[in-house]
Design goal:
This protein is an alpha+beta fold and 464 residues long. The chain has helices at residues 3-8, 10-17, 27-41, 49-55, 60-68, 74-88, 160-166, 177-190, 202-205, 208-216, 247-253, 255-258, 323-330, 334-345, 357-382; strands at 95-104, 114-118, 123-136, 143-150, 197-200, 222-225, 230-232, 244-246, 263-270, 273-288, 291-303, 310-315. Strands 1, 2, 3, 4 and 5 form a five-stranded mixed beta sheet that branches. A five-stranded antiparallel beta sheet has the order 6-12-11-10-9. A two-stranded antiparallel ribbon has the order 7-8.
Length: 464
């Protein structure tokens, strides 16, 4: 944005920032927050402290102190972002998206920097990695970053002197990324955010602790899994001859999947034509911590225009759940990619030139505030109102439930497993699935025999 465009939004920005007044003890840091956000919203090519200070006519030293020495809480700022989203943008079918991102950095003085995989450069590089939790409405038109944490590598940061120079707190120790993500989920739930679904890429789905953690929290998920993800096509406890194979082999050898006709689902109209995928689905059983669990959903999807592009999804949705919301969530990871792209390219999330841990965390939290403001303004200028959302659908006027029903053999929930309590019998018509933590529990379920086509462009995500 230019300075004139930012000025035109000045009343909206002032009212928005009033939500965060109590995150600061003094008026000076509150004013610096406004200046920092104006700099992030500008068309500056680089949005680090010095260019933003010059753009807003703020002394450079003053803005540096805003990120380093000023007394204010980035934790409270993050919590307030989540509370605003929960209050003003609640969606009974909201999707939580988990991913991580790399920020290239030279040298070894910046907190948490390490020679590791960097998605920004597409190679192993010196970078800082952050883990993020994003929020998307069911139609994915509203997107907001809820949480960001720095990932402290397991090696290289055990030197007390190096930690002190980078300002890394003593209590901060190595935690796997999936552990960080689950802690972010807990904070969001504590701040009133309610999710109908979670999704993540195949790296997180390969961590049994992550999936078990979502189940322990009573959360439904649809995650992409690698083609070598092992499973049974039948419950090995009750049937003989059940083979433990990777999902790619199961999709080619399992009778339930091999003889099942493909169904097509329309995802999006693009400049090159409609994006249509075909899919098959079947119940599977998995092994975790020496126990056999299931049935889960296995969905094998293939791009109709590019048959070599295949995806495998795993979901703990109850049997009888319509396939449309499962596919919708499985292909809805792109809002996180778009959010990260906007924060990096438009708001300068990776442009931080500070080195201390707290300073970087403050920069990330302010960037979340800036992105939320943009998301709210985008929604306001579109003139959007809250209402029902529509899911992708097969072609045709009616949508009979033709998929095989998962058998009602789901084990009793344990401390490592918690499934929504629903009738395991298959439904005869496609209707909205039961939503845990629904914001409007008295609202009748919605049906959608003639839905609109939902934009669900799913860009290819590089391996991290």
């Amino acid at each position: 944005m230019t300075a004139e465009q930012i000025l035109s939004l000045a009343p909206e920005l002032t009212n928005f920032l009033d939500e965060f007044r109590d995150c600061f003890g003094r008026s000076e840091p509150r004013n610096h927050l406004a200046n920092y956000i104006r700099g992030q919203l500008s068309d500056l090519p680089r949005k680090s402290v010095e260019p933003i200070a010059d753009f807003t006519n703020t002394p450079r030293r003053t803005l540096q102190e805003f990120l380093s020495w000023s007394e204010w809480s980035h934790v409270r700022l993050r919590d307030r972002v989540q509370q605003v989203v929960a209050r003003d943008h609640a969606d009974s079918q909201a999707i939580g998206i988990i991913d991580d991102s790399g920020h290239p950095k030279c040298g070894d003085k910046t907190a948490c920097v390490h020679f590791q995989w960097c998605g920004n450069t597409g190679k192993v590089d010196d970078c800082v990695v952050s883990v993020h939790l994003s929020y998307a409405s069911c139609d994915t038109r509203f997107r907001a970053m809820l949480d960001s944490d720095l990932f402290l590598p397991e090696r290289g940061w055990d030197d007390p002197d190096r930690r002190a120079q980078a300002g890394i707190p003593d209590h901060l120790v190595y935690r796997p990324k999936y552990d960080i993500a689950l802690a972010q989920v807990d904070r969001a739930l504590a701040n009133g955010i309610r999710f109908a679904w979670f999704t993540a890429d195949e790296w997180y789905s390969a961590c049994p602790t992550f999936l078990a953690g979502l189940e322990d929290r009573g959360q439904r998920y649809v995650v992409e899994v690698r083609r070598n993800f092992p499973a049974w096509s039948r419950d090995p406890r009750d049937k003989t001859g059940a083979n433990y194979r990777d999902v790619e082999t199961l999709c080619r050898s399992s009778v339930a999947l091999r003889e099942q006709p493909c169904q097509q689902v329309h995802l999006k109209d693009t400049e090159k034509g409609p994006m249509v995928w075909e899919f098959k689905c079947a119940p599977i059983w998995i092994q975790r911590d020496g126990r056999i669990l299931g049935p889960y959903w296995l969905i094998h999807a293939r791009n109709v225009l590019n048959p070599s592009e295949e995806k495998y999804f795993l979901s703990n949705a109850p049997s009888g759940t319509p396939i449309e919301p499962i596919l919708h969530v499985g292909f809805a990871r792109w809002p996180m990619e778009r959010t990260l792209e906007d924060e990096k390219n438009e708001l300068g999330m990776s442009h931080f030139e500070v080195r201390k841990y707290d300073s970087i965390m403050r920069h990330l939290s302010v960037t979340q505030v800036s992105h939320l403001f943009l998301a709210r303004q985008t929604q306001r200028l579109r003139g959007e109102k809250s209402g029902g959302h529509h899911l992708p659908s097969p072609r045709g006027r009616q949508r009979p439930d033709r998929r095989p029903a998962a058998e009602p053999l789901r084990p009793r929930p344990t401390s490592r497993q918690s499934f929504p309590q629903t009738d395991p019998r298959p439904t005869q018509e496609c209707s909205s699935p039961p939503i845990p933590h629904a914001n409007t529990p008295d609202e009748p379920p919605r049906t959608g025999h003639q839905p609109r086509r939902t934009p669900l462009l799913y860009p290819k995500i590089k391996r991290k």
